[in-house]
Target: HTH lysR-type domain-containing protein
Amino acid sequence: MNDTLDLAILRTLVAAEHLGGFSRAADRVGRTQSAVSLQLRRLEAQLGRKLFVKSGRGLVPTEAGEVLLAYAQRLLALNDEALAAVRGQGLSGRVRLGVPQDIADTVLPNALARFARAHPDVVLEGRVERQETLNRMLRDGSLDLILLFAEPQSPTGQDLGLVDLAWIGAPGWGPPPGQPLPLALLDAPCLFRKAGLATLDAAGQAWRLVFGSPSLGGLSPSIRAGLAITVRVARFCPPDLAPLPEGILPPLPRVSLRLAFAEAAPPPAVEKLGESLRQAVAEFLSARL
Model:
């Protein structure tokens, strides 16, 4: 029996988990879907356990699959960090990164820590801004790369995975009977605002704007006070707030996490930070809530 796990197969499994299917994972790792299916069967034979089972039109991990995915994240992280440290020796220069607040609070710390350890001579500069500002700064050359949210079919950048939007409010919040739905939303243009209002309008749900702000911090008081709800990525929900239970309001669409570069062929330091961001996103999306 082969007692050594193949990291290439583990990378495919992790990609399938956070991209939402083996077809998209096959595209990401540069293999055909039949080759990926064969990889999975070989891995299951090696471990003597079923790792995925059918659910609807897709596959979901079994309990053994969940365990393996957790270890796979750690193995791949260590492997990639070791490669980056050795290959990146002597790497220098400046990298200018932009992200919105949600990503800065969640995904970014691990990515920056890993990158700084592997490439201590690279100077990092960051901006936390609204998405339309980040896109403008990327176009005008003020930033080298950005990580942000976009609609799933957006042509912008590289798709790193889909995340669910959710209605977010204070714990125990319920809609006021007979009244328009009270909302706290970021100022337009805003992808989450657009998705929320389009969903309510399509369902014929009346709403009113209670609080508006250019920043998440400006919305928080009204949400924490139970005066309004907002739209955010479910996985990025602050610990003192909570997604509304399913069925209270119409479901929201999913959005894509996308990585975009200012140049088609980024400098080595910029590309290395992009690799750290891809890995951090994969780990975050594969982590169990």
The domain at 163-255 is CATH 3.40.190.10 (D-Maltodextrin-Binding Protein; domain 2). The chain has a mean pLDDT of 88.
